[in-house]
Amino acid sequence: MTRVFRLMALVLLALGLQGNVMAAERGTAEQATALVRKAVDYIKTNGRDKAFAEFGNPNGQFKDRDLYIMVYDMKGMNLAHGANAKLIGKDLIQLRDANGTFIIKEFVETAKSKGSGWINYQWPNPVTAAVESKSTYVEKYEDLIVGCGIYK
Lowest-confidence range among 60-69, 110-119, 125-134? Predict the structure, then answer.
């Protein structure tokens, strides 16, 4: 019986450690916000073309675990995407998540009305490939919307 309790304790400990490791592999809200501000500064300093190329670099300074930068214009056109280059150049204003949320429309409305903010929706995690709850911080810079999301 003691052996069973030891085994159960080891399993519970392993599960607890796994949860901590998984949490460490995910970016935080503070890190996402900081990455957006760093991206805006990078655009200001280096120009759009160089910045957008760097945002798409999988080994670049704007890719950290599940954090990446995305950029849209104020009409919903994707201009840069750190996780899916196939989205670049596409008008995504009508893009909805599994719950019917118009994701990019929310980005645009938040940028126009508040200048920055968080939007919640469902989205495939590029690391796990599972659809998860996501919250993206967006910030308006000139006619751009720069964003970075976290998986919850």
Answer: 125-134
Using the structure block, give the residue that is written with the tokens 């910045």: 51
* DSSP, res 67: E
In angstroms, rounded to a whole number, what is the distance separating the alpha carbons of residues 146 and 52?
A: 11
Protein fold of 27-151: Beta-Lactamase (3.30.450)
Question: What pLDDT was estimated at residue 2?
Answer: 44
Query: Smallest Cα–Cα separation from 125: which of 114, 116, 137, 133?
Result: 133
pLDDT digits (tens, 9 = 90+) for 51-96: 999 999 999 999 999 999 999 999 999 999 999 999 999 999 999 9
Closest CA to 144 of 108, 95, 117: 108
Find all residues with CB under 8 Å of 88, minimum gap 6, and list them: 56, 78, 79, 80, 81
Hey, which residues does 135 pair with through a beta bridge? Answer: 120, 150
State how far the Cα of 60 lies from the Cα of 82, in Å rounded to an integer: 9
Q: Reading across the β-sheet that carries 144-151, which strands appear in turn?
A: 78-81, 70-73, 144-151, 131-141, 116-124
Sequence spans of domains, the chain: 27-151
